[in-house]
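=== RUN LOG ===
request id: a7f3
mode: sequence -> structure
chains: 1
length: 392
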Amino acid sequence: MRGHYLLNLDEMSLSEIVQHLNHEDYTTVASMVAYVERISEGKDSRVMADIRELGGVPAVIDLLGHPIPDIHHSAVNILWNMAYRQPNDDGNLAIKNAGGIPALIRLLRSTSDDDVKEIVTGTLWNLSSDEKLKTAILDDGLTVMVKTVIIPESGWPKNQDNDHDIRLRTTPFSVSFTNAAGCLRNISSAGLESRKKMRECEGLVDSCMYALRSVSGSQLHELLDCKAIEHCMCTIQNLSYHIGSEIFQQETTNSHTANIKDNQDFKIGCFSFGKKSSSPRDEIIPMETRNRKEPPRGKDLLWQPEVCRPYLSLLSECSNPDTLEAAAGTVQNLTASDSRWSVDICSDVRKSKGLPMFVELLKIDVDTVVNSVAKAMHNLCQDPRNKELIGE
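=== RESULT ===
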């Protein structure tokens, strides 16, 4: 129906066209919204400003709930163009202030059109790059994105009992999955409360981890290096950040707390080596393994001793520098405390023959990757045997 015009649009002003977006006649609405979609595809930011000033954004958002599905494609594409092409935040805020985020989420939940689903998730991904919108997307859309896109398209079977159920992926991830994973990546960087809420979201960690494991050992670089895996790895990195203090703070050893108090300049974590501690971390005595549920699910997957194995696979097989940086950064996050599970992870990295991979990646000509790898190695050296082997 799009592109079929019963009116002479060339003789109508943009103001008149916007007013017709809420017309009762389906054919008229289809013509008007398709025309607005067409002019929004250009690079002229003034057109976008005119659409906003004439009240076009609320009118377009209303069409996301139109009873005729053919309207949805054009309406959501206008919002995608606005979120993608705006040189400032005006378009994003206009979408938010007009109730665009919950409207997009409702459409994502209800649509069966794959093209519409791709554009909705792409629009949400674009909007999630705006710091002021991350919380709104998290609150309104997290559960729906995970249930309708991330879980079903990751390949994760909800009734999976163990790692033996993982099937090696041979087909590319869908555009909708890539877009939704990019959105999760953005909102996972919104701070402590976002990390907590996302860790608790049913199926989020499971499906992202399954996606990473499903390409481990793959010989297909279009899978290993794709944006979907990059987004999943970066999301897991963000959710692993400060996991020791945010989930298992009470299990941090007393010696670690004393070290921090004795030397406030010594920092362990994602962003700084800090100064050398007065009490070397390699003197820590590993404690018993933390009690674990079988099989581990949800946020428990983030701290299992063997959690780094898919990350190590990516470090040895992937060539996407952003994925490499995120994989090394996740190992760094997980080995940044002296808790029992962190010490076990350090040991498992060695037993999984991961140390040579880190040493080899120090030679790569990408500063961000080298920086992340070096910091991970710094933390891995809290294990005396790791320190000895790395030195050799």
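=== NOTES ===
Residues 134-154 form the longest helix (21 residues).
The chain has 22 helices and no strands.
=== END ===
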